[in-house]
């Protein structure tokens, strides 16, 4: 059986092997390559086909023997199949993938002024779909084009924003290509980045109650279509949502929040053991980083310094995927931490009655009444969490 692969310049962030494992039992590899290596790689007969990603979706056009009508019209190829006679045919499965993403996010572009950030191969596909779906105007913002980031203010009236650039992509989490505060007419945001699950651009849009989505649904939908080419068989559309759910369940961090002494560390270790995941305790990271206990940090450097280091350690942990992470009770005191946690996390509030909370070695728990601390934090715990666990039962 021939194997398949993903060709790109940097692929350490890719979920493609995991996604393709949901659609078929075939070998799928990550093939990092420089541009001068593309032709030789494509000619390797042990591969039955490839997916193509940044920055080669336009480059491979000239290396294909045949190109589908859709790919030719767009000017971008993201799937290549090797026929029995060895010829390479290029397709664009991103087209249907992007349509699926817009529909899943309930973002209607008909009659809208759409601004597309970036001018690469993915941008070409997005432009074609937006035009076919009836966008009234499509503006391309690039670093050196007629419309660029220096004069982007001319298009602050854009209603739909689509990011096709890698700005905000792992490991550059937390960055955003534009400030949504400038776009008063914005009605929807799409970011093709899928790692992190929610980029800062998407989180900023959600904070404004705007329809917004990352790129995972598009990635999975186009992979399903690519897999149909690879295996020469039909895959039902319902498998797309199944695969999305499975990928998220395997990659999103489980992040525990709650009052000091609520049992986040103990429960976190149990959850990690059951899920076969790595467990990370933010307090342990702080102690290792500072070379002193948390009470010592509070005593010698103060709470402000502690919170600064806490955020730094949180960033280091949450940029990763597939972890179980226990946070400190005061993590919700800094609004900045919300986006850090939400980018790749399912947030679980560990609830425990105040009279059962342990206070030993917890400076703030000893310096103020627990009921006062809880009143100050409970709304944040509720807002930040996706669900809660009642940890009031005695544990053996």
From TrEMBL:
<keyword id="KW-0067">ATP-binding</keyword>
<comment type="pathway">
    <text>Metabolic intermediate biosynthesis; chorismate biosynthesis; chorismate from D-erythrose 4-phosphate and phosphoenolpyruvate: step 5/7.</text>
</comment>
<feature type="domain" description="Shikimate dehydrogenase substrate binding N-terminal">
    <location>
        <begin position="6"/>
        <end position="80"/>
    </location>
</feature>
<comment type="similarity">
    <text>Belongs to the shikimate kinase family.</text>
</comment>
<dbReference type="GO" id="GO:0005829">
    <property type="term" value="C:cytosol"/>
</dbReference>
<dbReference type="GO" id="GO:0019632">
    <property type="term" value="P:shikimate metabolic process"/>
</dbReference>
<feature type="binding site">
    <location>
        <position position="283"/>
    </location>
    <ligand>
        <name>substrate</name>
    </ligand>
</feature>
<dbReference type="GO" id="GO:0000287">
    <property type="term" value="F:magnesium ion binding"/>
</dbReference>
<dbReference type="GO" id="GO:0004765">
    <property type="term" value="F:shikimate kinase activity"/>
</dbReference>
<keyword id="KW-0963">Cytoplasm</keyword>
<dbReference type="Pfam" id="PF01202">
    <property type="entry name" value="SKI"/>
</dbReference>
<keyword id="KW-0547">Nucleotide-binding</keyword>
<feature type="binding site">
    <location>
        <position position="329"/>
    </location>
    <ligand>
        <name>substrate</name>
    </ligand>
</feature>
<dbReference type="Pfam" id="PF08501">
    <property type="entry name" value="Shikimate_dh_N"/>
</dbReference>
<dbReference type="InterPro" id="IPR031322">
    <property type="entry name" value="Shikimate/glucono_kinase"/>
</dbReference>
<keyword id="KW-0460">Magnesium</keyword>
<feature type="binding site">
    <location>
        <begin position="261"/>
        <end position="266"/>
    </location>
    <ligand>
        <name>ATP</name>
    </ligand>
</feature>
<dbReference type="GO" id="GO:0008652">
    <property type="term" value="P:amino acid biosynthetic process"/>
</dbReference>
<dbReference type="GO" id="GO:0050661">
    <property type="term" value="F:NADP binding"/>
</dbReference>
<dbReference type="InterPro" id="IPR000623">
    <property type="entry name" value="Shikimate_kinase/TSH1"/>
</dbReference>
<dbReference type="InterPro" id="IPR046346">
    <property type="entry name" value="Aminoacid_DH-like_N_sf"/>
</dbReference>
<feature type="binding site">
    <location>
        <position position="377"/>
    </location>
    <ligand>
        <name>substrate</name>
    </ligand>
</feature>
<dbReference type="InterPro" id="IPR036291">
    <property type="entry name" value="NAD(P)-bd_dom_sf"/>
</dbReference>
<dbReference type="GO" id="GO:0009423">
    <property type="term" value="P:chorismate biosynthetic process"/>
</dbReference>
<keyword id="KW-0028">Amino-acid biosynthesis</keyword>
<dbReference type="InterPro" id="IPR013708">
    <property type="entry name" value="Shikimate_DH-bd_N"/>
</dbReference>
<dbReference type="InterPro" id="IPR027417">
    <property type="entry name" value="P-loop_NTPase"/>
</dbReference>
<protein>
    <recommendedName>
        <fullName>Shikimate kinase</fullName>
        <ecNumber>2.7.1.71</ecNumber>
    </recommendedName>
</protein>
<comment type="pathway">
    <text>Metabolic intermediate biosynthesis; chorismate biosynthesis; chorismate from D-erythrose 4-phosphate and phosphoenolpyruvate: step 4/7.</text>
</comment>
<keyword id="KW-0057">Aromatic amino acid biosynthesis</keyword>
<keyword id="KW-0479">Metal-binding</keyword>
<feature type="binding site">
    <location>
        <position position="307"/>
    </location>
    <ligand>
        <name>substrate</name>
    </ligand>
</feature>
<comment type="subunit">
    <text>Monomer.</text>
</comment>
<feature type="binding site">
    <location>
        <position position="362"/>
    </location>
    <ligand>
        <name>ATP</name>
    </ligand>
</feature>
<dbReference type="GO" id="GO:0004764">
    <property type="term" value="F:shikimate 3-dehydrogenase (NADP+) activity"/>
</dbReference>
<dbReference type="GO" id="GO:0005524">
    <property type="term" value="F:ATP binding"/>
</dbReference>
<keyword id="KW-0808">Transferase</keyword>
<dbReference type="InterPro" id="IPR022893">
    <property type="entry name" value="Shikimate_DH_fam"/>
</dbReference>
<comment type="function">
    <text>Catalyzes the specific phosphorylation of the 3-hydroxyl group of shikimic acid using ATP as a cosubstrate.</text>
</comment>
<dbReference type="InterPro" id="IPR023000">
    <property type="entry name" value="Shikimate_kinase_CS"/>
</dbReference>
<keyword id="KW-0418">Kinase</keyword>
<feature type="binding site">
    <location>
        <position position="265"/>
    </location>
    <ligand>
        <name>Mg(2+)</name>
    </ligand>
</feature>
């Amino acid at each position: 059986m021939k194997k398949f692969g993903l060709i790109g310049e940097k692929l350490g962030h890719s979920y493609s092997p995991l996604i393709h494992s949901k659609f078929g039992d075939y070998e799928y590899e990550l093939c990092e390559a420089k541009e001068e290596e593309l032709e030789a790689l494509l000619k390797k007969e042990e591969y039955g086909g490839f997916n193509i990603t940044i920055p080669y979706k336009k480059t491979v056009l000239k290396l294909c023997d045949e190109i589908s009508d859709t790919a030719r019209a767009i000017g971008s190829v993201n799937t290549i199949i090797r026929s029995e006679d060895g010829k390479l045919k290029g397709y664009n499965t991103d087209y249907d993938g992007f349509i699926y993403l817009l529909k899943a996010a309930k973002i209607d572009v008909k009659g809208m002024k759409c601004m597309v950030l970036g001018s690469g191969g993915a941008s070409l596909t997005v432009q074609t779909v937006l035009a076919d779906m009836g966008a009234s105007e499509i503006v391309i913002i690039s670093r050196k084009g007629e419309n660029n980031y220096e004069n982007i203010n001319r298009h602050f009236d854009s209603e739909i924003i689509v990011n096709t650039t890698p700005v905000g992509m792992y490991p550059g989490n937390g960055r955003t290509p534009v400030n949504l505060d400038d776009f008063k007419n914005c009605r929807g945001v799409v970011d093709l980045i899928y790692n992190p699950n929610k980029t800062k651009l998407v989180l900023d849009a959600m904070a404004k109650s705007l329809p917004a989505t990352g790129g995972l649904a598009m990635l999975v939908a186009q992979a399903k279509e690519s897999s149909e080419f690879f295996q020469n068989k039909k895959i039902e559309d319902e498998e797309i949502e199944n695969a999305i759910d499975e990928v998220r369940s395997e990659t999103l961090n489980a992040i525990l929040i709650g009052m000091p002494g609520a049992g986040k560390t103990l429960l976190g270790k149990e959850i990690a053991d059951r899920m076969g995941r790595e467990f990370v305790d933010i307090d342990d990271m702080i102690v290792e980083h500072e070379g002193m206990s948390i009470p010592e940090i509070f005593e010698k450097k103060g709470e402000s310094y502690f919170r600064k280091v806490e955020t730094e350690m949180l960033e280091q942990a949450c940029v990763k995927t597939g972890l179980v992470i226990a946070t400190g009770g005061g993590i919700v005191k800094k609004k900045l931490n919300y986006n850090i946690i939400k980018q790749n996390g399912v947030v679980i509030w560990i609830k425990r009655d105040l009279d059962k909370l342990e206070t030993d070695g917890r400076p703030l728990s000893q310096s103020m009444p627990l009921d006062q601390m809880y009143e100050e934090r409970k709304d944040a715990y509720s807002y930040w969490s996706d669900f809660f666990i009642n940890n009031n039962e005695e544990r053996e």
